[in-house]
Amino acid sequence: MSTPELSPPRPAADALTAPFWDGCREHRLVIQRCRACGHYLHLPKPVCRFCLSTDLGYEAVSGRATLYTYTVAVQPFHPYYADKVPYLLATVELAEQPRLMLFTRLTECTEDDVRVGMPVEVVFDDVTPDLTLPLFRPAS
Amino acid sequence: MARKQQRAAIVGVGYSTIGRRTGLTPQELTVQAVRAALDDAGLQPSDVDGFSTLGGEPLSDAKMLGMQPLHMFFSGGMSPAYSHAALMAVAAIEAGMAHTVVTTRIIQQQPSGSERLQDAGPPPPIGGDMQFLVPFGGGIPTQWAGMLTRRRMAEFGETEDHYAAHVVTQRHHASMNDDAFFRDPITKDDYFASRYVAKPLRLLDCDYPCDSGSAIIYTTEERARDLRQKPVFVESYALGSISDLNFEILEDMVATAPHHVGEQLWSRTDLTPADIDCAQLYDGFTFITFEWLEALGFCGKGEAGPFVAEGNTRLGGSLPTNTDGGACNVGRRHGANFCIEATRQLRGQCGERQVPGARTAVWSNGAGPFGGAMVLTAE
After folding, report:
1. Of A54, B145, B202, B330, whose Cβ has the fewest other Cβ atoms within 10 Å?
2. What is the ipTM of this complex?
3. Does the beta-carbon distance from A78 to B133 stay under 8 Å?
């Protein structure tokens, strides 16, 4: 019996979250937004916490962000990532709204290139035919 | 029972056998810890009418131990760990709902990182909030701890040297604690030789995984005065939450739930931070103790690094802190060790590491989305 190909941890998208992941596959970063008050929401929820409206949709955002913090993940906790350490995990603040935080990984840079507060931009990593991750790199 | 507000007191504390993979079941850990706490207090199971746990099953634990009927039972979920079970017990006693409540924190050692890699088959797809963390290679506590630490460094100019000072101080305290796993004094060089787990977080910044059972018994002031130990009174307590459980996307990573808890804690007592003789502040990761020092007003926001490096938190300093050596040295007990250490300090039972004449203490638990804290006093 052959060893199955190591697959990455995959999101179980549902009706609430599918537009985010579908957008990534199309290389568009889309974030849930309240149609009543205009606030963006991430993580996606069935209600807007700012106004309690349930009239929510998804909108494309610029992909521009500020690096809020990061860590160099040295120890892997999932077999898929065992040969990928070290890597840079990060939280970025999207340009569209203060404190609109998104958890991601930094790419096309090393730890030495990175500082808290630097501008970053989205870039899409087609991990498998079904999974594209929105990663961030130092802004050009 | 009189329906009036009354002060609660800690009258019994106890631990199970504590170790790496002890082979003890959660029930066995519960039995050992609770029996030790009953013995410490001089109480019988029939004296107990409340059971509040995190990691146990309050109804089956109480029945198993012959504690019935109950007037209060509680089981914490994702919460500031032991402090949640403790604060619910105290609130129930103060309100007159129950008079004597056993509280426990029961922990079984989790699989290590390398064990997680071995055990994993094809991973199932990840739903809920975690789908926005795990696919990126995240979702692990040490990782958010590294991120929150990094933000403190960027915002406050905190340095790894500050963290080293804290770790060395805690080990110094552990060297005077027979219960600690790690008792050999270390230097900053040892800290800097400790490997990174999620840089800047090092192995020595993390609490030590183990099996542990901790039990603390609370009762009314009136009953406490008739028991075996010098009573330790609950002067103030507060619980707080500012977010759901996603540490990785907290909107402010340097002023988290502990700040919210601190305001409430001091609003409920005439005591002030300057009145506190010793502090026992949660140390799941080094930065958490730093945040509590600031959140409880022992130093200014962003000043914990220098405050620790100057020796204030060392025995003999202005605020001896984590005098049992902390969970990094005594093993993971999720705040219960700090409640027990605070109690023993106020009873004067700490031997070589006793804070002379300690009459007031604060202990805390949690950080990030949630936190809990308690001020204790002795006469």
Report:
1. A54
2. 0.96
3. no
